[in-house]
Automatic annotation (TrEMBL):
It comes from the Eukaryota. Keywords: Methyltransferase, Repeat, S-adenosyl-L-methionine, Transferase. This is Protein arginine N-methyltransferase. Essential arginine methyltransferase that can both catalyze the formation of omega-N monomethylarginine (MMA) and symmetrical dimethylarginine (sDMA). Specifically mediates the symmetrical dimethylation of arginine residues in the small nuclear ribonucleoproteins SmD1 and SmD3. Arginine methyltransferase that can both catalyze the formation of omega-N monomethylarginine (MMA) and symmetrical dimethylarginine (sDMA). Belongs to the class I-like SAM-binding methyltransferase superfamily. Protein arginine N-methyltransferase family. PRMT7 subfamily. Its EC number is 2.1.1.-. It comes from Rhipicephalus microplus (Cattle tick). GO terms for molecular function: histone methyltransferase activity; protein-arginine N-methyltransferase activity. Residues 212-327 form the Protein arginine N-methyltransferase domain. One of its GO terms (biological process) is methylation. It holds the Pfam family PrmA. InterPro entries: Arg_MeTrfase, MeTrfase_PRMT7, PRMT_dom, SAM-dependent_MTases_sf.
Length: 677
């Protein structure tokens, strides 16, 4: 039967979509990146001076101007002609206002087009070609925002023969690493249910090349125990943005490296470095701390992280062994291969064959390998599963049905995702399990004929493919409402998990606050109009709580953790009604500010086993929080507020009975509010 999806999108109009696009165009952390701003400023001024010293006027084109910052830098430094293009109309209008706020409207001509749509000539967008082009069109992989295509087109149509491009060049670097931790984001590990029972990974999954989607990650947040550098870093490609021959559509790099350790080559990590000027005196690096010139004092960035690629197979190497590293780029897709062959094959762009990589996030794949989480489930299941036990599993999980079956239960699984159905079939074949029955349709439409015997255990990780925030998994509890006819009486039924806790802690983020904070002024220019545009759009479209993998973003606790609500999931949701509560928590830290609240969910499996989507260690005010690395937490940003002698006040409302059959947190079922008072 065809899968029926019950969750619908909120009814939103075109204006909402427009505002949402404006909110997503903020990239506020880029404008908070002082090193980036300073080095673009210095390189652009140097280019203008170079043109003037050679007797030429300086004609500058700022591609993708955004806030108008780079165009204003050029105008203020004395560029004779300044063009700025911006294709997104609301941002272009805002840039026009920002330029006017800074009294530079007579010095900058704004073109509301993509650079690829600009025409040069009499009575056209530009009356002459630019001899200086400045652009910041890079992402984590350097080329993902179309940088090479943009520069190729600009060189052909918009630039003079002697045009100076800012930045001048970029070099991409690669390094082979051993990291079981990073590997777990790509391929699940074997799960040890008991000393005698394990769940093996099917060959189709184990050998799957994965998807072409890069794992972009804050590599500088890895612990020393998480990885070993197998090789030194090596430059893979160098692009000189003023030389069109270096800006290829596709390319292959082959390098012979020497292994520094006896190790397994799990992944290839990559980053890039910009040469901002032609003298190569101004450099901007996105390297992780161990390869960065500033080490652990490197500037923080969220718009430029590092990229992780997984070779099609793992390679074990000895110390001082010769290794071939082949990196291939086809358009926007990058892939890598590590080999000991002198003539290694060219890697293929990954295409998922097992379904897991196409449908699950990297962090979700990592959660499938989380040993501590599975140990707790195995312990809880071991207490309740007997020879005649019937389990009913709900959700997109594949490990729990296998665990329950291995422990001796007859298992029925309500599958709401086609990919999970195929994946579970692969796992059952690999592990020779024949006590799992998959019900491939929505739980709402199950008949009393399925299963044959009423379930005495209702089981869920819980996890659903629609999960964004941990409490989205309360869908498990709401599904219970539609499954009563398949379950034993409440007195006989065991529900795992049996309880839910929504918890929070006041925090001081080291850097993450920048993604929502207004920039006010940058490089001496007033950007308050840009702030207003973005903040207005965010207030219309953004949820007050947003998901973030907080292990990548250091923060210190400024309060004790506190419980907002607790739900006994052995009870039925229709009997719960509306939950409304509030409270306050004192600050207990030497930190000066509280700029956010971190929220997470705990699921109580039984009286002695609880899994958390939050801190991996006990929270201590004044100390950095260690977060679970395979889940996202919720973040509620506050305006930076001086603490003493104030308290963190909170209120919460959860309308449980609003829509029992169609639980979707995005439908305003949960309302949060936090404030420092």
């Amino acid at each position: 039967m065809e899968l029926t999806r019950m969750n619908g999108d909120p009814d939103v109009g075109e204006d909402f979509g427009l505002q949402q696009e404006i909110a997503r165009s903020a990239f506020a952390d880029m404008l908070h990146d002082h090193e980036r701003n300073n080095k673009y400023h210095a390189a652009l001024c140097e280019a203008i001076d170079e043109m003037h010293s050679s007797g030429n006027i300086a004609v500058v084109l700022d591609i993708g101007t955004g806030s108008g910052l780079l165009a204003m830098i050029a105008a203020k430094h004395g560029a004779d002609v300044v063009y700025a293009c911006e294709a997104f109309e609301p941002v272009a209008k805002c840039a026009e206002q920002v330029i006017e706020d800074n009294k530079l409207q007579d010095s900058i001509q704004l073109i509301p087009k993509r650079s690829t749509e600009i025409h040069v000539g009499f009575d056209q967008d530009m009356t002459e070609r630019a001899n200086i082009i400045v652009a910041e069109v890079f992402d984590t992989e350097l080329i993902g925002e179309g940088a090479l295509e943009i520069f190729r087109d600009a060189l052909r149509r918009l630039a003079t023969w002697d045009c100076i491009i800012v930045p001048h060049a970029a070099t991409m670097y690669a390094q082979v690493v051993e990291s079981p931790f990073l590997r777990s984001f790509h391929i699940p590990n074997v799960i040890q249910v008991t000393p005698d029972i394990k769940i093996k990974v099917p060959g189709l999954v184990r050998t799957c090349p994965g998807s072409p989607a890069v794992l972009d990650i804050q590599l500088s947040q890895l612990q020393c125990s998480d990885f070993v550098c197998v090789t030194d870093r090596v430059p893979v490609w160098r692009y000189v943005f003023s030389e069109i021959d270096t800006l290829k559509e596709s390319e292959i790099s082959r390098d012979c490296l020497i292994s520094r350790k006896k190790a397994t080559c799990h992944a290839v990590v990559m980053w890039w470095e910009l040469e901002m000027d032609r003298k190569n005196s101004i450099r901007l690096s996105t390297a992780p701390y161990w390869a960065h010139p500033s080490g652990k004092e490197q500037p923080w960035r969220d718009h430029w992280m590092q990229a992780v690629y997984f070779p099609p197979y793992e390679l074990k190497v000895s110390v001082d062994e010769k290794i071939s590293l082949v990196v291939r780029r086809e358009g926007y897709n990058i892939c890598a291969l590590v080999s000991i062959s002198k003539n290694p094959k060219i890697p293929e762009v990954p295409a998922c064959k097992c379904g897991l990589h196409m449908n699950a996030s990297h962090s979700r794949i990592g959660a499938l390998s989380d040993r501590s989480r599975h140990e707790k489930f195995a312990a809880a299941l071991g207490k309740v599963i007997k020879e005649e036990t019937v389990c009913l599993c709900i959700g997109s999980d594949i490990m729990l049905p296998l665990m329950a079956s291995k422990l001796g239960a007859q298992v029925y699984v309500v599958i709401e995702d086609n990919y999970a159905y195929v994946l579970l079939e692969e796992y059952t074949r690999q592990n020779r399990v024949n006590t799992i029955t998959v019900i491939k349709k929505d739980a709402l439409y199950l008949s009393e004929k399925e299963p044959k015997k009423k379930a005495s255990v209702l089981l869920g990780e819980p996890h659903f493919s629609t999960t964004i925030l941990p409490w989205d998994n309360l869908k498990f509890w709401f599904r219970k409402h539609s499954l009563q006819h398949l379950l034993c009486t409440p007195s006989e039924l065991v529900t795992i998990p049996q309880g839910f806790s929504l918890k929070a802690v006041g925090v001081n983020f080291k850097d993450l606050w920048k993604i929502k904070a207004p920039v006010h002024a940058v490089e001496g220019f007033d950007l308050s109009s840009f702030d207003k545009l973005i903040q207005n759009a965010q207030s219309i479209t953004d949820d007050p709580v947003e998901p973030q993998p907080l292990w990548e973003y250091p923060c210190k606790a400024v309060t004790q953790e506190f419980v907002i609500i607790q739900i006994d999931m052995r009870n039925d949701p229709e009997a719960t009604g509306t939950i409304s509560c509030d409270g306050e928590v004192p600050f207990e830290s030497n930190e000066d500010e509280c700029n956010g609240v971190a929220l997470w969910a705990d699921f109580v499996l039984d009286d002695s086993n609880t899994i958390t989507f939050g801190p991996a260690k006990a929270i201590v005010p004044g100390h950095e929080i260690v977060w679970d690395r395979f889940s996202r937490q919720g973040v509620y940003f506050l305006n930076c507020t001086k603490l003493k002698p104030k308290v963190l006040k909170w209120s919460f409302k959860f309308d449980v009975s609003k829509d029992l059959t169609n639980f979707d947190v995005s439908r305003d079922l949960m309302n949060f509010n936090f404030d420092v008072q």
